[in-house]
Amino acid sequence: MINLRTLLFPPRCPFCGRVGKREEPCKRCKASARELTGEVCKCCGVLPEDCFCRPLKPFAFERNISAFYYAGGARTLVLRYKERSAPQLAPFMAKRMLRQIEGRLEGDFSAITFVPNTMRATLRRGYSPARLLAQELSGMLDIPVVEGLARNHAPQQKYQKNAAARWKSAKENYLLRNGATFFGNVLLVDDVTTTGASLDACAALLKKAGAERVYAVTFAASVKKKKPR
Ligand SMILES: [Zn+2]
Ligand SMILES: [Zn+2]
Fold first, then answer.
1. What is the domain-level CATH number for residue 181?
2. How far apart are the C-alpha atoms of 17 and 192, rounded to whole Å?
3. What domain count does the chain have?
4. How far away, in angstroms, is 193 Cα from ligand 2 center?
């Protein structure tokens, strides 16, 4: 018998949102969402062949861990989450991030913080995607969210394709909030990482504010396909 709840809220694939028989990933998303299980780079968090570390200029964070590659079903999910104002997707995303934290990180964390959005983006969506993920993880891990970072009021940066430009603008994009203080190990949350530039800029600021070590955790890592050699 179909109940009203199923009729009003039919079970959907958490990745693409298609209605299915159960609340679980559909076949297509299961096949296309690549979860970052197994051996990953202990610094940038992706498979060794996709490593985007910068050996000559190490990141300000100890390591990044990501739950998925930013592709296929995982990309669809992030786009739904960010572009269609779908905050209800945060618990599923945070659960997948939690798996990574529990499997790969050891030690205690004094605080969870996140890579801030511009005020304009937050107003447009009605929420901050990274803050919401931080709040979900905070509840799961019982570690407080401490808001220590803010966006600079620099003119809105366009998406920078050029890696050097991204690194430069990332540094200018963030600043510490007045009186922000951290200590011990801090978890830094964001939805997607591409070059690690934003995470690096934010981690450097958190360390300036007293954090000893910063561990980044993102839902997805976007990597460029390397040309075959
Ligand atoms: Zn799906
Ligand atoms: Zn790496």
1. 3.40.50
2. 19
3. 1
4. 13
Kindly give the distance from the C-alpha atom of residue 131 to the centroid of ligand 1, in angstroms, as a whole number.
25
pTM over 0.85: yes
The Cα 57–Cα 128 span in angstroms is: 30
Residues 194, 196, 199: CA angle, nearest 5 degrees: 120
Q: Within 13 Å and on the Cβ side, how many CA atoms surround 189?
A: 31
Ligand showing the shortest atom-to-Cα distance for residue 223: 2
Asked if residue 228 belongs to a domain, the reply is no
pLDDT in tens, 132-174: 999 999 999 999 999 999 998 765 556 666 777 778 888 899 9
| Residue 1, domain member (yes or no) | no
CA 36 → CA 62, 67, 78, 86, distances in Å?
A: 18, 5, 16, 24
Q: Which domain holds residue 91?
A: 34-221
For residue 13, being part of any structural domain is answered with no
27 domain residue, yes or no? no
Ligand 1 mean position to 111 CA, how many Å? 33
